[in-house]
Design brief:
This is Cell division protein FtsX. Belongs to the ABC-4 integral membrane protein family. FtsX subfamily. The protein is an alpha+beta fold and 304 residues long. The protein is built from 9 helices and 4 strands, in the order H-H-E-H-E-H-E-H-E-H-H-H-H. Helix 2 runs antiparallel to helix 6. It is elongated.
Length: 304
């Protein structure tokens, strides 16, 4: 009987403040969608790091005829200098760190360049002799690239030793900045949602102040009086949370997996398993924020 009475009070409150309830639903939906997108973006960054860091190579660029620097004072790297680098890679000092390596000569580098930049006018101006001969090295532990850099950078005929992870870090930094921006926007929207829920509860309590006074006179407890208002906030927030979960699922299903993944098949993307993790988080966060803000509003401002 008490439960039915509480549900009746909840329904009354929702009907009296339909416009405010819709506002709470929309603000919660938008804010939690940003939260979900930020979480997914962090997951995506983590997946890409795991995927690409293992594939990142160390490039040992040999001098060309146009290279500068002390190591390239003699012009293009000769056969002896190239052999010296290979001897270092095969040495007992570096072998424990190396998984595999291969050598790319001028012709191979030019062929790969033409494939990579097919249709670009720059291919008309680049010749094979302008491209460096290169040793491409896969390390057992990509984080130990400094060992190769220190061992090989000073050898004659070596133009530079470059860890490809440095290029990846720039990309991941941009993605992280976008993720933090989404988190900032989501935080502002969540604050707006909390304030809106609190305002809705205050208005609902004010419109029923006479009934609440009667309930207090007949001995109703504070918990019995407050519960309908808290449930109003939770219900409105849950609707917005569920909509945000649907939006996140749609983003992953149709945008990430349906369009982005086929366009970029050379990397991994978040999928349904990640959605299963994110959506419950959004629903729990929405319900908790609504319950806490409603509890605070009714305790702080309701006078009966």
């Amino acid at each position: 009987m008490r439960f039915a009475l509480i549900l009746g009070e909840v329904g009354t409150g929702l009907r009296r403040n339909v416009s405010m309830v819709i506002s709470v639903v929309l603000v919660t939906f938008i804010s939690l969608t940003f939260v979900g997108a930020a979480i997914l973006l962090q997951m995506q960054i983590g997946q890409m790091k795991n995927f690409w860091y293992d594939k990142a190579q160390v490039a040992i660029y040999m001098c060309t005829a146009t290279s500068g620097g002390d190591n390239c004072a003699g012009g293009e790297a000769n056969a002896d200098q190239i052999a010296t680098v290979q001897a270092q890679l095969d040495s007992p000092t570096l072998q424990p760190f190396i998984d595999k390596y291969y050598f790319e000569n001028h012709e191979q580098a030019f062929e790969n360049f033409q494939k990579q930049f097919a249709g670009n006018p720059v291919t008309d101006y680049v010749t094979a002799d302008l491209l460096s001969q290169t040793y491409w090295v896969n390390l057992k532990d990509p984080s130990q690239s400094d060992v190769l850099v220190e061992s090989l950078s000073g050898l004659a005929g070596v133009d530079s030793v470059t860890d490809q992870r440095s290029y990846l870090e720039q990309i991941f930094s941009i993605l992280s900045a976008a993720s933090y921006t989404a988190i900032g926007i989501a935080a502002l929207m969540l604050v707006a949602a909390v304030l809106l829920i609190a305002t809705t509860i205050r208005l609902s309590a004010f419109s029923r102040r006479r009934e609440l006074g009667i309930m207090r006179l007949v001995g109703a407890s504070n918990r019995f009086i407050q519960t309908p208002f808290i449930l109003e906030g939770i219900i409105a927030s849950l609707i917005g949370s569920v909509l945000a979960g649907v939006a996140i699922w749609a983003i992953v299903k149709f945008f990430v997996q349906g369009w982005l993944a086929p366009q970029l098949p050379f990397t991994s993307f978040v999928g349904d398993s990640d959605t299963v993790i994110v959506v419950p988080i959004l629903i729990v966060v929405g319900a908790l924020l609504a319950a806490l803000s409603a509890k605070f509003a009714i305790t702080r401002y309701l006078k009966v």
